[in-house]
Amino acid sequence: MAIIAIDFGKRRIGLAIAESADSLAYPLATITRVSLEKDLEQLRSWISSRAVSRLVVGLPLNMDGSEGPSAQAARTFGAQLATHLRLPVDYTDERLTSFEARERLSNHGGKWRRKTAVDAVAATIILEEWLAAHRNSS
């Protein structure tokens, strides 16, 4: 069953997918945010066409590991996703994922200035980190 990671932001939502906990993560899409209702429906559309068993939402912690307003917004969105989509939601630390995404795109000749690409790659990094932690705990 597939796992989808979400890089939740004020303007966009980056998505990445892994077909199973033992597979690789790859970028899926970037959704431009409109309203909570429309955002949830767009996510439902992306998720319903795949056999998704779990969602992973990036948690933007402060550099000291504490949770600020952005982390609380991500937790609230994750809870809304869980209710709306009836899927379990995990959270994983996403500190510096956008920076790493820009680096990856730059190193591979990608147009890292395209924010939509950065969001999807950041979601991929979030999922890679979740998968690594999940595999190590098994």
The helix content, as a percent range, equals 40-55%
Query: What pattern of helices and strands is seen along the backbone?
Result: EEEHEHEHH
Cα gyration radius (Å): 14 Å
* Proper CATH architecture: 2-Layer Sandwich
Strand order of the largest sheet: 3-2-1-4-5
How would you describe this structure to a colleague?
The protein is of the alpha/beta class. The protein has a single domain (2-137), classed as 2-Layer Sandwich (Nucleotidyltransferase, domain 5). Helices cover 46% and strands 25% of the residues. It is built from four helices and five strands; from the N terminus they run E-E-E-H-E-H-E-H-H. The chain has helices at residues 36-48, 69-85, 97-107, 115-137, and strands at 2-8, 12-18, 25-32, 52-59, 89-93. A hairpin with a 3-residue loop joins strand 1 and strand 2 (12-18). Helix 3 (97-107) crosses helix 4 (115-137). It is globular.
TL;DR of this structure?
By secondary structure, the chain is an alpha/beta fold.
Topology at a glance:
Blueprint: E1 2-8, E2 12-18, E3 25-32, H1 36-48, E4 52-59, H2 69-85, E5 89-93, H3 97-107, H4 115-137
Parallel strand pairs: 1-4, 4-5
Antiparallel strand pairs: 1-2, 2-3
Helix pairs in contact: 3-4
For the structure shown, list the relevant keywords.
138 residues, alpha/beta, five-stranded mixed beta sheet, 5 strands, single chain, Nucleotidyltransferase, domain 5
